Amino acid sequence: MRYTRDTYGEEETRALGRVFAGELPPDAVVAFSGDLGSGKTAFIRGICDTFRCSEQVSSPTFTIVNEYVGSRSIRHCDLYRLDRIEDMLEIGLDALFRESGTVLIEWAERALPLLPLPRYEIAASHGDVESHRRFSVQLCDADTASILSAPAELFRRKA
Q1: Number of separate domains in the chain
Q2: Beta partners for 67?
Q3: Which helix (H) or strand (E) holds 136?
Q4: Which range of residues forms the domain containing residue 10?
Q5: Residue 34 sits in a domain of what CATH number?
Q6: Residues 56/34/79/94 CA torsion (nearest 10 deg)
Q7: CA 145 to CA 142: how far, in whole Å?
């Protein structure tokens, strides 16, 4: 499974997240990559709309992992502040994949060696106008190359 969709505005991005959520098995891992402001958190809010926990969603940049309670257990991770695999292991990121529930990971390209297969991958990017976002979505398994890449933002940050 692989497709690309364009959205214009946050509500369309959330609507795409809701459609995507209808495909998700209960213990799915969803890995997101994309520059700041590319729509990752809005897409995640759409997923969480489906599972009746979107009012709890905030980007966990400083807490690293947020847990949401709704019709499904959701763990939302943001790896923006973590530079090393060792840091991710120290906070128990790998243990999240062994627990039941859906795991949504922003800046997931930073954790590629830890991410289980199969997993869903979503690469978000800015479009040609301010409200335009493009989402490439695929189910990644052992025979599929990852579509996650380091966003330009990471090249501007000090490591």
Answers
A1: 1
A2: 75
A3: strand 132-140
A4: 2-156
A5: 3.40.50.300
A6: 90
A7: 8
